[in-house]
Amino acid sequence: MRDWDSLTLAEQTLLRAGARNLLAAWTPEHYSTAQRWVGDADAPLRSLTTEESRERATELMPVALDLHERGELFVAKATGQPWAYTHELLPPTEQRAFLADPENWLVKPATEPAGRRIALAVQPALREHLTAVVDRLDPKDHPTLSADEHEHMICAFEYSGWLTGPYGIWQEMRQGLDEAARLAFVDEQVAPLLPLVRNGWIEVRHVAATDSADYTVIPLEQLRTALADPAIRYEGDDWGIGVTCGLTFAGVAVSRRPR
After folding, report:
1. Which of 81, 250, 251, 253 has its CA 20 to 30 A from that of 130?
2. 6-17 mean pLDDT
3. 18-44: b (≥16 Cβ within 10 Å) or e
4. How far apart are CA 243 and CA 166, in angstroms?
5. What is the secondary structure of 40-63 as a DSSP string?
6. Are 55 and 41 in contact (CB under 8 A)?
7. pLDDT at position 240, please?
8. 137 vs 60 pLDDT, higher one
């Protein structure tokens, strides 16, 4: 395996996807996210449109084929239950054919037929390297998190960790508050979150509909006013709508450092 820092962002994105056995169709969105997290001004503060996904897929495909040729990225089918735990590599010719097919790099209503889920894969040694070296920081590099900050890091680590709504970690905002009262309420809630966002460890997203994966990133300077808006917070009973958070690559490294 080559030195991690010598790899391009596209290579790193694909190898991270392989380490997590993700679908190739998910990687354009992950690539855009990675571009945003490294400060690329052209990366949108939202989920990708279909055309933007197609453009990034066109960029990722030859990179994936090159990684496969190097023996660093593979294609496997799920053979265990649950699907994420056991994978079996496809024959080499099928792997290359899969990576060269543009349809496999775009999200579709039914990405794979039932019983045959095809995912990216890497050697176990690389997966361990990502966990042990790339995604871990020395504890001396950062101060100890407060209890409230640690709670928010755990929330961001969990799948679709929600801040607001019925599954969120935040208390609901009382109805009937005026703007000043709403802002005061929010100021108390966001206090442990702000330094984590400022450090680039957590990204906060607004999801506007339960039937869509589309999202908009809420930048640090807009968090206070956005979270004081009842329409953005969403305090209803549905899951999958409102304000969520997730760890960035830097946040993963912090969360994995020895405590």
Report:
1. 81
2. 96
3. bbbbbbbbbbbbbbbbbbbbeeeeebe
4. 11
5. -TTS-SBPPPHHHHHHHHHHHHHH
6. no
7. 87
8. 60
* Residue 234, C-beta contacts closer than 8 angstroms, at least 6 positions apart: 164, 165, 241, 242, 243
C-alpha distances (whole Å) from 236 to each of 78, 113, 225, 232 are: 37, 35, 20, 11
Residue in 122, 106, 156 with CA at minimum distance from that of residue 12 = 122
- Give the pair of three-digit tokens for residue 194: 């702000």
> Cα–chain-centroid distance for residue 241?
17
- pLDDT tens-digit map of 190-228: 999 999 999 999 999 999 998 888 999 999 999 999 999
Given this model, what pLDDT does residue 133 score? 77
Q: At 221, list the tokens.
A: 């300077």
Backbone angles phi, psi at 217, to 5 degrees: -75, 135
- Ranges 41-45, 79-83, 122-126, 149-153: which has the least confidence: 79-83
- From the list 5, 56, 88, 16, the residue with the least C-alpha distance to 248 is 16
Q: How much is the pLDDT for 63? A: 98
Q: Is the dihedral of CA 49, 43, 13, 255 positive or negative?
A: negative
Task: Report the Cα 29 to chain-centroid distance in Å.
Answer: 9
Angle at 220 between CA 214 and CA 225, to 5 degrees: 85
- Mean pLDDT, rounded, of the chain: 89
